[in-house]
Specification:
Jelly Rolls, single chain, 5-stranded antiparallel β-sheet, 14 helices, 5 domains, polysaccharide degradation, 45 strands, 8-stranded parallel barrel, 16% helix, alpha+beta
């Protein structure tokens, strides 16, 4: 019988790391290759196949007919609609062809069946470009009264790309019970997939000859020559540690370097940390970017390069390069190498260590005493005491004048709460000979770590020859921090707003206002810097959310028994919120079934990180690669995931492939037309949205080469080729007050200009790559853009902090602000899995599948935005509740039966009346 495709739902992403997680990295002699084999770590490493599962803790009397030893727990596989549904685990990295494995499982059954139920052990074998096959191992009759031991063995003549072990068999409706599973191999050498009999541990370095004690054995040159040395340059260069180092010489390309093939020594879905000690030498280059890179060749010969880490190397000292990587599939070849410096420059390597990454200790929530939310930390804001507390930064002149606004800037009003009117006095700064000169104040002792501070002020400039930038900046020791930025082109007062947070203790923190060109006078009034009370803001947003994302619902029951329904108990449960919550995914993610499970369970929209971009689909002219996008689209279609198309073009010159940049005007116009035709016709009707020309506020490659009208023509042509998708503009820093190029006002002008020239712009994309988000600032941008009446989507949200709790708070700000705003119609995260995101410390799930605090916060909000209700049918045969938009299930429970019906709550102004015929 053909079995359902396995897209397993991992129900235990928030469990602790498996205590047996390292077992697959070593010898498998008499070692159980099943992880978490007795379910002591919940369902970690196990996945229910199209059903549900949970673990019954030790000493529970959940199934009274079955006794367990003290301290034992077991898994219950339930809600099984088919006999083949059960519990599975991927064992690919633990098995090898030609070896014999023995299987022993302690199993039972429970539920509505007579006599005994058969439990079957099965292997699912997945081969590239061929049909999936199933291998029967053994079966055992299990009863409700006692545990049974299922035993069998298997051997594989060839090694599939994926091997999944699972238990199945009892009839539909019956629960499958599993107490333990053992799969062992009697021969240590036969079962070691690396082909050696050595035992490795998590601490073992998988690099052979890492310090060149055996010359350059196991090392080679990638397009260059390699040699080992005990010293160079007349003894001026010696190893930092050990006796030897290696050199990569005669390099003619930046990608030339020293390499080692590590095929068979890296295991899929394990995170590895890489540490190299290296430097450069020769060619009169004193400093260069040095990169660690992984070359991976898949079983289907598809090739990819994974950047591990980079460091600025010098010719003076050894430097340490550190990074992490993870491989999702079982590749046919993996090579690690160093690259990067200019041709002719030697790369010197002292040692290289690659080992299974240790788990980072979980963050602790920051302890902040006396936060004083809403209290301004700036001294003498009102200037009642002249310029006391202030000083001029640089050789400029400060004075106090009158005539500035008396009202607080709008973005600060809600955050500050009760406050006094402003004094109307302002600081006038004249004789500015540099753009960084302006009023300053030291705030070192007033800033508390991990608090998010909002910045607000009125600013104005004197006579200038053109638009001028004004910036509230912070000097944090030697680092510049942006506290807000605005562009001014008139003589009016303007609101400036922004935010910042300091997460490491600083010796000196100074705030100063800067920006206009030398000679331009600067005026500043009512500068406020204060910590924001996010919890108070969240309470407001919850009320706002209920108004726009929920609807009153009345269920009216009818049927043959409707007259006797008064007082009948009913339960209403929301199955799914219809609001789009999506994420970026990539083709390589699809090889990790844990990633797939989390994504399918917790998101209903997708966007491809790179696979649809022009530089990916046509890296070389005329050589097309749509295979990755096709496979991602097929995955999303099978799992009812809607997809955004990102992106048709990208205006930033650095993202445009070299062959496109080399074209003359006529050939470029032809290439643009071919790109539109090829992409839009191939995927006609497949994508719900398209980002037509990404980041037009920050780049102008096509406009500079082809004229301003090309942007409008891109929209027009895309619409002509495919009428169905909504066509979006998409840009960053729109929502945070930190970038004068993409302020909400400029974004509005940009959109209106496109529309006035005939571009069918149908949606506004705000990327959402944000630091220290502040609700009122984000909301202000949304309010301004909402005037256009177009749907707004957050298209690429990510937040970054070393501390998971701070990251979780930042993410909650963005999700709540978006979900509570009536103009926002969707939220896309720019990834969620560690090592597969563009920003560090932005992930929700760690590399090996552990949910961190930010991930828990995301799931908590998703749960909060589901409605559940219960009660009794009234005498009119009705039941009323208020619920979020989405799909629902209602259970009507009478003395003799339980009736289940499904319904949908869609958007609407008035109460929704739903008739349910029983």
């Amino acid at each position: 019988m053909e079995k359902s495709p396995i897209i397993a739902a991992n129900n235990n992403f928030d469990s602790q790391t498996s205590k047996e997680n390292g077992k697959r990295t070593g010898s498998y002699a008499a070692t159980n290759i099943i992880l978490n084999h007795e379910f002591s770590d919940g369902l970690n490493s196990w996945h229910p196949n199209c059903c549900d599962a949970f673990v019954v803790p030790a000493s529970s009397e959940y199934h009274k007919g079955l006794t367990t030893e003290e301290g034992c727990c077991y898994a219950v596989v339930t809600n099984r609609k088919e006999c083949w549904q059960g519990l599975e685990q991927d064992i690919t990295s633990g098995v090898s062809a030609g070896s014999t494995y023995t299987v022993s499982a302690c199993v039972g059954a429970s539920g509505t069946f007579q006599g005994s139920a058969e439990v079957i052990a099965t292997l699912k074998l997945v081969y590239q470009n061929s049909e999936t096959s199933y291998l029967f191992i053994a079966k055992k009759s299990a009863s409700k009264e006692c545990w049974e031991i299922l035993e069998g063995s298997f051997s594989l003549s060839t090694m599939p790309d994926q091997v999944i072990f699972y238990l199945e068999g009892p009839p539909s409706g019956a629960d499958l019970l599993i107490k333990s599973v053992m799969i062992t191999c009697p021969s240590s050498t036969a079962c070691d997939r690396s082909g050696t009999s050595s035992v490795s541990t998590d601490d073992d370095n998988i690099i052979v000859n890492p310090q060149f004690d055996d010359g350059i054995n196991s090392w080679s040159g990638r397009g260059c020559k390699v040699a080992s040395h005990d010293s160079m340059a007349d003894g001026k260069i010696t190893p930092m540690s050990g006796k030897y180092f290696a050199s990569a010489t005669e390099r003619t390309q930046t990608w030339n370097g020293i390499q080692q093939d590590i095929t068979g020594r890296v295991k899929r879905k394990l995170a590895y940390e890489v540490t190299a000690v290296a430097r450069i030498y020769g060619n009169n280059v004193t400093s260069a970017d040095l990169r660690g890179t992984l070359y991976v060749k898949a079983a289907d010969n598809r090739e990819r390069y994974i950047g591990i880490a980079s460091v600025q190397a010098t010719d003076k000292d050894w430097v340490k390069l550190q990074g992490k990587f993870l491989i999702n599939d079982s590749p046919s070849q993996v090579v690690v190498f160093l690259e990067g410096p200019p041709p002719g420059t030697d790369i010197l390597l002292n040692n290289l260590v690659i080992k299974h990454a240790s788990k980072a200790p979980p963050s602790s929530p920051p302890v902040i005493e006396d936060a004083a939310f809403g209290v301004n930390i700036i001294t003498n804001t009102s200037l009642n005491d002249g310029t006391n507390g202030w000083f001029p930064l640089g050789n400029c002149t400060m004075s106090v004048q009158t005539g500035s606004p008396h009202i607080m800037p709008p973005m600060a009003r809600d955050s500050l709460g009760a406050h006094e009117p402003l004094s109307g006095r302002y600081i006038l700064v004249t004789k500015r000979t540099q753009n960084w000169m302006g009023p300053a104040q030291m705030i070192t002792d007033k800033v508390k770590l991990y608090l998010t501070y909002q910045v607000s002020a009125w600013v104005k400039i004197g006579q200038a020859s053109g638009p001028q930038s004004v910036n509230v900046a912070l000097g944090v020791d030697s680092q510049w921090v942006n506290g807000g930025q605005i562009e001014i082109s008139d003589d009016r007062w303007h609101e400036i707003g922004g935010s910042f947070r300091i997460e490491k203790q600083a010796a000196k923190v100074m705030v100063y206002i800067q920006g206009p060109a030398a000679g331009v006078d600067l005026m500043v009034a009512g500068l406020q810097i204060f910590p924001v009370d996010r919890r108070a803001r969240f309470r407001h947003l919850k009320r706002q959310t209920a108004k726009i994302r929920k609807r009153d619902v009345m269920l009216k029951f009818s049927g043959s028994d409707s007259g006797s329904l008064h007082g009948t108990f009913i339960r209403v449960r929301q199955l799914q919120n219809s609001f789009p919550f999506g994420s970026a995914i990539s083709r390589t993610n699809m090889d990790n079934e844990d990633f797939n499970a989390f994504f399918v369970k917790n998101f209903n929209w997708a966007v491809f990180g790179n696979e649809l971009k022009w530089y990916w689909t046509e890296a070389q002219q005329g050589n097309f690669n749509y295979k990755d996008a096709d496979e991602l689209l097929d995955f999303c279609t099978k799992n009812n995931i809607q997809v955004r198309g990102h992106c048709i073009f990208w205006e930033v010159v650095g993202t445009v492939q070299a062959w496109v940049q080399s074209l003359n005007k006529n050939d470029l116009m032809t290439a643009v037309q071919n790109r539109l035709t090829g992409l839009l016709k191939r995927y006609k009707g497949k994508f719900e949205h398209y980002d037509v020309n990404n980041e037009m506020m920050h780049g102008s490659f096509y406009q500079d080469r082809l004229g301003k009208e090309i942007r409008v023509n891109m929209f027009k042509t895309a619409h002509q080729l495919d009428l169905s998708p909504i066509l979006f503009v998409n840009d960053y820093h729109v929502e945070d007050g930190s970038d004068t190029r993409s302020s909400p006002e400029k974004y509005i002008e940009h959109i209106l200009d496109l529309q006035e020239h005939g571009a069918p712009v149908g949606g506004i994309g705000i990327q959402g790559h944000i630091d220290t988000p502040v609700g009122p600032i984000v909301c202000s941008a949304l309010d301004k853009l909402g005037i256009l009446g177009l749907p707004i989507w957050f298209t690429e949200v990510d937040v970054s902090s070393d501390n998971e709790y701070v990251r979780a708070d930042d993410l909650e700000v963005m999700l709540r602000e978006a979900y509570a705003h009536p103009s926002v119609e969707g939220i896309m995260l720019w990834g969620f899995w560690e090592l597969f995101m563009s920003r560090p410390n932005a992930h929700l799930v760690n590399a090996e599948g552990d949910l961190n605090e930010a991930g828990k916060r995301y799931l908590s909000l998703k749960h909060e935005w589901l409605s559940h209700s219960h009660g009794h049918i009234d005498e009119q045969g009705q039941f009323s509740f208020s619920g979020f938009h989405g799909s629902y299930e209602v259970e009507v429970i009478t003395v003799s039966k339980k009736i289940t019906k499904k319904f949908v709550v869609d958007k609407g102004d008035g109460a929704l009346v739903i008739s349910i015929d029983l």
